[in-house]
Amino acid sequence: MKIRDIISLGLQGIKKHKFNFILNCIVIILIMLIIFFCINLIASVKETAIIDLHKHLLSQNNTINLIVYSQNPNDFIEPNDLSIINDKFNGYGVVDIEYTYLQCDDDVKIAQAMFQITISDNIDKKFFNLYYDVKTLQKEMRALNSNFMIESVTLIDIEKIMVYSGLYMMIGIFIICYLTVLLTIILRNHVLINIYNEIELYSILCCFGMRIKQILDIAVIESMLIIVIGAIGGAIINLFLEAKTAYFANLLTQEFLYDSSTHAFSNIWFAPLIYCCVIIGFSYLYFYLFLRKKLSRNNLLKTLSRNY
Amino acid sequence: MRFNCLIKIAILKLKDRKSIHNIIAMAIGMSIIIPIVWLLLSFNMGIVNEINQVPINNILSFESSLLDAIYLDGDNSVYAYNYYRGQQLSDMEYNYFKNDSEVAWREFLIKKNPNNTLDMVLGNDEIKSNEDLSFKFLMSNNDVLKGMQDYIYSNYNHDAIYGKKFTDKKREIYVSEKWLEKMGYSTSEVSGKKISLSISYFNYDLKESRYLLDNDNIVTNKHIMMIDKDYDLGKLTAKVKIFENFEIVGIISNEYYELNQFTSKEADFWLRADVLTDNQGTSLFPEISMQDLYIDGNLTFKVIATYANEDFLDYSQIVTSQGCFFPFIVGNDYLFTRNSGEMVLPLRLSYVQYNDFNETKEKIGYFNALNNVADGSGYRICTLAMESLIEDYKIAITISGIVGIIGVVSLLSILVNYSQYLNFNVRKRLQYFEVLHRIGITQREKYFIFFIEILVEFLIASLLSCIISLTACLIIKGIFSLIFKNYSMLNLLQMKIHFFAPAYLLIFSLTGVIVMILALISMRTLNGVKSLIIK
User: I want to staple A148 with a disulfide (CB 3.0 to 4.6 A). Which of A94, A131, A141, A161 is the partner?
Assistant: First the structure.
């Protein structure tokens, strides 16, 4: 039988169940849209996070300010404490220390000290070492005096960028896995229902000597068409939304993570394509391996003899 | 046919392999939606609501540098002049804060000094002391303690603040337990008593009063003030009334001051802000100014304290040793920065507490807008905790949104799939229904059998999905807690395990209703095909 005839037979079901077909297409388009969004999210999150880290550091003139103070207004910072901190960060290039004094009667005491540390442009090992050193020092100082605080707004922002990047990535992976499972279940059910609906046709075709593989092709062609329509529809809507309004950038409201001017969203067009090919190949393989039992020659002949 | 026979026929179907497949498929369908609903509830109802109700983080610290006219001249002297407003809230701030829903306070401290004594009258007792004294003003009228009480009662010791709330009588006061202990009183014996407080100065060295600035609320009052470390401002001998005959309505216990961050500056008294306003709402904060005075016929440069709504009196002929001095500015409240001796910038801090997160968020927006209008020279809001909460809030809302969309899409796809399955199920079992028809089962009884079949399948699938989804949710939770164990928002997520039950309830009830509706729709198909069978 010619391929054209197989396709024609496969698409017969669409004419019979137009409404179901359209509903399935809409659902798959929605699922694909979300999956593509998540793929883009995962693929771009690291790149965007690094861009944001650079931008953030640049906005601070590549300087990290560490503010040292006590939560208790009656505690003051002793010069010894400052020298410990200074020694710790000296290797990173402390460029300036700014003090905030507190005047009590005639004494002037240090209420707060701000260390300015200049770092290089690169988000390298040294940068992360500094980050972990600050963390360690915070713990050490708090162990000595629970009111003692070492704060750095820049480091908190940097930490947030990293944590949120990780969070988005994890949620993206979770959603892709989840929707892939859902997609597989939907397609499987769709093919099964299709087979049961058309079993009489298939048994007749089998009786006339058509190969089981060709019958299987007829059975799955509608589902494959739904995936392709869903993928194309999802990709088009994805591109449209992105081009139109920087939609995704607005959706993820963390402006430091997704700056609409720099985000790397639209560059990753091939990932959805790969996903689509993989899911189509996987589904076809699955149908071919597992649904073949349902369409065995014996089964089909039995059906035929039962009905006629 | 008898009712139990119909039930038996319906349950017979469950032994069919296809029915078991259907139950498993339905269970998987529900199981994959439950983690989504759980995440949605945890983020949206759990974390967002949690953030909304955390008053401990709703303390803002407004830090603003003094606006203009401060510059360095030489090594030691600083001049401040023009309309410098001092440390008091401005008109705009005051009008903004005096609404009922907000609580703002300022703290002032009188430092002990050999040349001053504190005179207190409590009931019939008169006490003199030269202890440090601090005040906290609550800038609101009604329910001012609500936010604090919510905070205290929900998190800490129930006895942290006790007594009555402020009423409209104005002359009411909260006294700290610590202060009472210093004065040798127990908390039980002071409640309801009247208290008065004043400070006596005798040859008080005004050197420290270089910090005493013009505090009135009348912009047109120009006060030129010279601040010079070495400049002798003179001596003050005066008795200054702070408050008189105030009723003690509540006690601030020692536990309250143990609360971290919230009470970094301890206050001995809490008063209502409108104690210092008249009926028209005009501020009665006393102002401090320096004028040339004639005392005993000699011209002397002296500090004068007046109330703002009084006209600037001609003091030149009046010898004053009695005034209403109020010490607004104190060492602990007055910070300045110095970088390598080149820059001196006085700063000020105000603390504001709001009842909930949303309100605080609005106010931050307000102050940012104010900041923009003031060309960046006004407020600098440094609220790390609040900013962090806002970001957590945004993230939680974003994730809820994404998860919600996915939940809706999942539900939609599962419904479409299930409705197709049901239609197919009816069509496939036409012979079965025909047999039922032949043995005398009526159309109504057929519906009933079909309905019971679906219902039993649904119930078994629900039980199965409980096991599958609970495992899935625990895995998700485990991954989250493992990776983000030090992160506040996700720590909150870990606590939201109790949202499993609502998630199940929501999904089971929703799916149950939808499945039953779909079953009813499919039964219409069954009705439609009856004629064909009989034919």
Answer: A141
